[in-house]
Structures are given as C-alpha cells and as structure tokens.
Amino acid sequence: MQTQHGHDSEGEHELRMQRVAAEPEENEEHGLITGAPNLASKALSAPRIRQAASVAGACLIYLTIGPTLIIVNRTLLVARKFNYPMTVASLGVLCSTVVSFVLVHCRCVRREHTNLITPKFFVYNLLPIGASLATTLACGNWVHLYLPVGFIQMLKATTPMVTLAMLWVSGIETPTLRVTLSVLGIVLGTCIASLGASLGGNFSVVGLGLMLLAELSEALKLVLIQKMLTNLKFGVIEGQYYMAPVSALWLCSAAMLMELPKAALPAHRPHALALIHSEPQLFIASAVLGFGVHLGTFLVIKTTNSVTLKVLGTMRNAGLVLFSATWYDETITRLEAIGYCISLLFFAAYNLYKIRGL
C-alpha cells in the first residue's frame, strides 16, 4: 500500500509540475502576471502601435500640406506678383492627373468602376462636379489678391452655413432647430469678424465676393457628390483619375481665355517667363502639394472619420490665422478675434449636434 501511495504521490507531483510550467509566472513583488499572456499583449500592441502611427501620420500630413500649399500659392500670387490664379490652381489638378494616370496604367491601382463611366455619366456627373471643384480652386486662389490670409481663414468658418443651405434647397437634408441656430451663430461671428476687418482696413468687397463664390462652389460640389455618387466609393487615386482631368479641363480653358491674353502682353510676358525660369521650385511645389491635399484628406477619412477631418480643418484654419499674424505681420483687430472665436464656438456646437442628431 505504501508503494502504491508513493507512486501516486510522485505522479501527482509530476502533474502539478506540468501545470505550474504551463501557467504564467507571477511576479510576487508587484502582483503582475508574466509569461504567455504578456507575450500575447505584446503581439496585440504591435497592430495598435501601427494604427496609432498611421493616424498620427495622416493627421500630420493633412495639417501641414494644406497650409504649406496656401503659403506657396500666396508667395507666387502676391509676393512674386504672378497674378494668374487659375493657372496656379491648375498645377495641382494637372499633377493629380499625371500621377493617377501613371499609377492606374502601371497597374499599381485597380479601377473598380470602369463599367459606370459612360459618356452620359461623364456629362451629367463628372462635368458639373469638375466645374464646381475648378471654381472652388480658382476663387480660393484669386481671393488672395484681395484679402489677407487670416481673414480668409475666418471666412472659411461659413462653410457649414453654405453647405447646409445647399443640402436643404436640394432636398437632401432638413436641418434641426439646434443645427440651424448653430449655423446662425457662425454667421453672426463671421459678420462681427468682417466688421472688424473693415475697420482695420483688411476688407474688400471683391475679395468677399470671391470667397463667397468659393464657398458656394465647394458646397455645390459636396451636394453633387452626395446626390450623384452616393453609392460609389472611389479610392483617392481612382477618384483623381476621373475627376482631376475634368477639373484641369475647366481650369485650363478658363486660364487660356482670361489669363493667357494678359500674360502674352509685352508688359507682362518677360516677368512671367523670368519667374518660371528663376524659381521653378515654387511651381513644382504648388503642383505636388495640390495633389498632396487630396491625398491627405483621403488618408484622414480612411484612418479616422469625417468628424476628425472637420476638427483638424478648424485647427488648421486657426493655426493659419495665428501664423499670418506673426509671419506676414497682418493686423488682426480685437473685433475680428472676437467674431472668429464666436464662429469657432458655434462651429463646435454645430458638429456636436450633427454627430448626435440633435
């Protein structure tokens, strides 16, 4: 009996040792469990780190490329007196056309919607969307000839108002009372900022009209995309493959009609050619950054969501207001600052109500 009991004890001891070996070690001093679960947590943390890095990279690209493009284009238009905003605006869409064409035809990117791109689809969908995008880009550049950078960014706070009005008129969306009041608050803040700009000598009726036209065309583009391309999810490259050539067609046609005759005059041609020859890096940067803006927007939406895009856009505009006050030595009156803060406050409320459906 003793021998049998001794064998049972040894067997139980071996089983206990196997179970202990299989169990994770416990750190008695800190009460922490180490071993297999710790390895699993490390394995799980790697994808999280990669995801966080992707989000941070996308946000960084979005926050830096847009302002850099504005600075480069303003340098060309104002500092270097290359007064051809449509020509400058066309550089980005031409670069987007070339890059997307190369990537698609080198089979780096696959087209998912080839069967849908018919002549009828081109005329009734792509042409109007491309025209609205071209108008946004052209007027967005043109306004720099009349208004300072800071005030332009303040006026961009009215985008929700114009977009909401377009969505309501087209019957796509009916705003709630709280959303409507938030938009009216944005308008109030913008009016106060405009009054401050006029008192500070930074106001131009032509510039304000161009900015309003840019906002209207941007809102129209969003409405057209929402109405015509609701069920079509284009990737950034495929979207640019179809849209960029159309926008380039509109911009280049307008530039040839409105800007080329002026640039060809003996009084203007030497300066334009000399600038292209002496500082080609500005034109190249404008073209590459123009494509980068579309890429940055796509990456932010892909890695986060559209709400994050709006928040980052607001941060970017506010940063440009501060940058313009320091770098360009632009005067921002107290009334402008108060009006802009009011607009930002109601813009935050607008986003909150939209997210929660209030």
Automatic annotation (TrEMBL):
<feature type="transmembrane region" description="Helical">
    <location>
        <begin position="84"/>
        <end position="109"/>
    </location>
</feature>
<feature type="transmembrane region" description="Helical">
    <location>
        <begin position="121"/>
        <end position="143"/>
    </location>
</feature>
<keyword id="KW-1133">Transmembrane helix</keyword>
<feature type="transmembrane region" description="Helical">
    <location>
        <begin position="52"/>
        <end position="72"/>
    </location>
</feature>
<dbReference type="InterPro" id="IPR050186">
    <property type="entry name" value="TPT_transporter"/>
</dbReference>
<feature type="transmembrane region" description="Helical">
    <location>
        <begin position="181"/>
        <end position="214"/>
    </location>
</feature>
<feature type="transmembrane region" description="Helical">
    <location>
        <begin position="337"/>
        <end position="353"/>
    </location>
</feature>
<feature type="transmembrane region" description="Helical">
    <location>
        <begin position="149"/>
        <end position="169"/>
    </location>
</feature>
<feature type="transmembrane region" description="Helical">
    <location>
        <begin position="241"/>
        <end position="261"/>
    </location>
</feature>
<feature type="domain" description="Sugar phosphate transporter">
    <location>
        <begin position="59"/>
        <end position="348"/>
    </location>
</feature>
<dbReference type="Pfam" id="PF03151">
    <property type="entry name" value="TPT"/>
</dbReference>
<protein>
    <submittedName>
        <fullName>Drug metabolite transporter superfamily</fullName>
    </submittedName>
</protein>
<feature type="transmembrane region" description="Helical">
    <location>
        <begin position="282"/>
        <end position="301"/>
    </location>
</feature>
<dbReference type="GO" id="GO:0016020">
    <property type="term" value="C:membrane"/>
</dbReference>
<dbReference type="InterPro" id="IPR004853">
    <property type="entry name" value="Sugar_P_trans_dom"/>
</dbReference>
<keyword id="KW-0472">Membrane</keyword>
<keyword id="KW-0812">Transmembrane</keyword>
